[in-house]
Design brief:
Helix content: 40-55%
CATH topology of the largest domain: Rossmann fold
Distance between the termini: 43 Å
Largest sheet: 4 strands, parallel
Order of helices and strands: HEEHEHEHEEHHHHEHEHHEHEH
CATH class of the largest domain: Alpha Beta
Length: 293
């Protein structure tokens, strides 16, 4: 949502770009730091990236934008939004700012993700992330055609760097085909699909947690029985968005001997690259699946 100052911008008028562009450098604003990290890898020294959501200790659903974000968007030649309702604050900032020739990329549109209940956590869709990276490369080449060859080379290097993550997912599919797992919400849903695992979480439970609501008693009971009956091999827990309900689920999993794998919605600062972050999470999942039950 917009904070009071940024909301005033949206109501009172637009912010336009006043700062002169640096020759050969594209100002980029990404709604989320993982997309910002990927575009920084592709653009190298020819991009200056501002990522709005970058604190893994903050609930991204409660984020409030500010005037600094509005100025950054106004000065950006390229803006990257996740879409699917995940970063509506960025859509509002785009509407409150102007920049001649600005390119806007929606990851949702790049992936053709449609429907009222689409999972917005596209950065966990490892097999399709190269398609998103290619869209970033094409936009940079359009904005700075003199450096197109460098962008293309960096894109190829990025695609290759996802190989270890893909290898871990293949190992999971081979060793644990269709293994049952659960999550507190759909954050790692695409990753689990790519790994060939079967999610048993009641859809109503995950939807309620994602929307910040209390799950229905029946969904809570069904979730508890998955854990106490050890009907799942692993619980994936959103460590960034917690509530009394999810903390109780995590505690119940541990008490029942079900391994817990934490996941986050924002890339932690301890990781230098998006692919290193995803590799660590995929490896944690592989280890948890192999733990004795």
């Amino acid at each position: 949502m917009l904070s009071g100052l940024a909301a005033g911008l949206a109501v009172g008028g637009c912010v336009s770009s006043q700062a002169p562009a640096t020759p050969g450098v594209v100002n980029v604003v990404a709604g989320e730091n993982f997309w910002g990290n990927i575009v920084a890898q592709i653009g190298g020294r020819h991009v200056r990236v501002t990522s709005i959501l970058s604190n893994p200790a903050t609930d991204p659903h409660l984020y409030e934008s500010d005037v600094a974000n509005a100025i950054a968007v106004a000065e950006a030649g390229l803006v990257i939004e996740n879409g699917a309702g995940y970063d509506t604050f960025l859509s509002q900032l785009l509407g409150a700012t102007t920049h001649s020739g600005r390119v806007v990329i929606s990851v949702q549109h790049v992936l053709g993700a449609a429907g009222p209940d689409v999972n917005p956590h596209f950065w966990y869709d490892i097999p399709r992330v190269p398609r998103v990276a290619a869209a970033f490369e094409a936009a940079l080449a359009r904005l700075e055609p003199r450096d197109a060859a460098l962008f293309a080379a960096n894109l190829a290097a990025f695609d290759r760097s996802l190989g270890p993550v893909q290898a871990v997912l293949r190992t999971i599919r081979r060793r644990y085909p269709g293994a049952p797992v659960a999550y507190t919400e759909r954050v790692p849903g695409y990753l689990l699909q790519a790994a060939g695992l079967r999610v048993l979480t009641p859809p109503g439970f995950a939807a309620s947690i994602e929307d910040g609501n209390e799950p229905a008693p029946g969904d809570t009971l069904a979730m508890d029985l998955l854990l106490t009956g050890r009907k799942v091999r692993v619980l994936l827990y959103n460590a960034q968005v917690i509530s009394p309900v999810t903390e109780q689920v995590r505690a119940l999993a541990r008490k029942s001997g079900v391994p817990v794998v934490p996941v986050t919605e924002t890339m932690p600062p301890s990781f230098r690259t998006y692919q290193a972050w995803q590799l660590a999470q995929a490896r944690a999942l592989l280890r948890a699946l192999g733990e004795r039950r």
